[in-house]
């Protein structure tokens, strides 16, 4: 889907993501998975699964969407960004396909497992970048929705508007990585650009889909207080101050081997973010408590206690509102 061909020289232009790769015969785009096969764009990862697990939905992370439920999480291989700090580089940019434990899994099997598992709310497309699994994800998401399952995408948001609008018809909730708030970070560290990700976030918010944002804070690269403050201000102004923000701790991975983010940095940025946003969490730290609990912005009661990925008490009613004051908190 989303490509055009040139009948003279057999190249194709992919229109799925902002890279807009011109792909010669026998080659793939930057994502490494969309192949020009005799003038037709072919998805080499269609139905190919590298990971399939029931995960707590908090692990995605989604803290305000069916809290405490499980979600069948599936992923394949390939990615359209090339972040030097990638935590999943073995499946995003596999150096050797033979060592990838990839299996073809039918969509019926994925659907059946999702329906039969107790307390499972739906299917999350995650682990690698699901945008580059567009066709298979969509083919699963349509019947999943018809069966009453929720579709969740954990993504870098680097996608063109038309395919995004198609996904917005069937996906219920998103966690989007906003990796930094400078174009230079996206250019130099990830091989992309910032504006398309902002466009994606605005489109999701405009369609009223559930949205949470993850920002991985890397020492010296995206931890500047002023720039971080501008990012939070933009989130609050454009997407709404109820948009949950997950500030995550970086650990060395792939091609970036610098010290993990100091806890003080995360706490400083959290304090700043909380001036503009109602739900701010710190992730990838052993310390839980206040850093991962949900506090009602109106009556200040702890409404969801978390310990790791487990939910303690839930002070919310069956409509997703604070049991104490009735303020809207989560989607149920
Ligand atoms: S999805 Fe892949 S082939 Fe298509 S434009 Fe993006 S990186 Fe290029």
Distance between the termini: 33 Å
CATH class of the largest domain: Alpha Beta
CATH architecture of the largest domain: Alpha-Beta Barrel
Mean pLDDT: 95
Percent range for helical residues? Answer: 10-25%
Q: Tally the helices.
A: 8
Estimate nothing, just give the exact number of structural domains.
Answer: 3
The largest sheet is:
8 strands, mixed
Compressed to H and E, one letter per element, the order equals: EEEEEEEEHEHEHEHEHHEHEHEEEE
Q: Layout of SSEs?
A:
Layout: E1 3-5, E2 12-14, E3 22-23, E4 34-37, E5 40-43, E6 48-49, E7 51-56, E8 70-75, H1 89-92, E9 103-104, H2 107-116, E10 120-125, H3 134-146, E11 150-155, H4 161-168, E12 173-177, H5 183-190, H6 194-206, E13 210-217, H7 225-239, E14 245-249, H8 263-273, E15 280-283, E16 294-295, E17 302-307, E18 310-314
Parallel strand pairs: 8-10, 10-11, 11-12, 12-13, 13-14, 14-15
Antiparallel strand pairs: 1-2, 2-3, 4-5, 6-9, 7-8, 16-17, 17-18
Helix pairs in contact: 2-3, 4-6, 7-8
Iron/sulfur cluster (SF4) binds at residues 14, 16-17, 19-21, 29-31, 34, 80, 132.
Please explain how this structure is put together.
With 332 residues, the protein is of the alpha/beta class. The chain has 3 domains: 3-43, no CATH class; 48-292, Aldolase class I (TIM Barrel, Alpha-Beta Barrel), CATH 3.20.20; 295-332, no CATH class. The chain has 8 helices and 18 strands. It has helices spanning 89-92, 107-116, 134-146, 161-168, 183-190, 194-206, 225-239, 263-273, and strands at 3-5, 12-14, 22-23, 34-37, 40-43, 48-49, 51-56, 70-75, 103-104, 120-125, 150-155, 173-177, 210-217, 245-249, 280-283, 294-295, 302-307, 310-314. Strands 7-8-10-11-12-13-14-15 form an 8-stranded mixed sheet. The chain has a 3-stranded antiparallel sheet with strand order 1-2-3, with no helix packed on it. Strand 2 and strand 3 form a beta hairpin. The protein starts with a strand and ends in an 18-residue tail after the last strand. 43% of the residues are buried. The mean pLDDT is 95. Iron/sulfur cluster binds next to loops.
């Amino acid at each position: 889907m989303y490509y055009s061909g040139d009948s003279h020289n057999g190249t194709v232009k992919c229109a799925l993501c902002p890279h807009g790769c011109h792909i010669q015969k026998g080659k793939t785009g930057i994502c490494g998975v969309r192949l020009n096969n005799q003038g037709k764009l072919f998805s080499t990862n269609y139905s190919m699964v590298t990971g399939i697990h029931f995960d707590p939905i908090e692990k995605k992370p989604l803290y305000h969407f069916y809290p405490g439920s499980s979600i069948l999480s599936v992923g394949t291989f390939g990615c359209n960004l090339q972040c030097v700090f990638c935590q999943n580089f073995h499946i995003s940019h596999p150096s050797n396909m033979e060592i990838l434990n990839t299996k073809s899994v039918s969509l019926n099997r994925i659907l059946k497992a999702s329906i039969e598992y107790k307390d499972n709310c739906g299917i999350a497309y995650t682990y690698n970048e699901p945008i580059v699994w567009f066709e298979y994800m969509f083919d699963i998401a349509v019947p999943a929705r018809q069966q009453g399952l929720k579709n969740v995408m954990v993504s870098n948001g680097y996608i063109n508007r038309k395919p995004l609008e198609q996904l917005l018809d069937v996906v219920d909730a998103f966690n989007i990585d906003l990796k930094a708030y400078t174009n230079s970070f996206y250019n130099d560290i990830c091989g992309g650009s910032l504006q398309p990700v902002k466009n994606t976030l605005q489109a999701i918010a405009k369609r009223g889909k559930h949205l949470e944002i993850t920002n991985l804070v890397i020492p010296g690269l995206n931890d500047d207080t002023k720039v971080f403050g501008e990012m939070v201000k933009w989130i609050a102004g454009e997407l709404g101050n109820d948009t949950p923000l997950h500030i995550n701790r970086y650990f060395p991975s792939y091609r970036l081997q610098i010290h993990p983010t100091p806890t003080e940095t995360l706490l400083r940025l959290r304090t700043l973010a909380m001036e503009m946003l109602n739900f701010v969490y710190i992730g990838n730290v052993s310390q839980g408590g206040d850093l991962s609990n949900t506090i009602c912005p109106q009556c200040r009661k702890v409404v969801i206690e978390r310990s790791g990925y487990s939910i303690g008490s839930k002070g919310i009613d069956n409509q997703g509102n604070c049991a104490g004051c009735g303020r809207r908190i989560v989607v149920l």
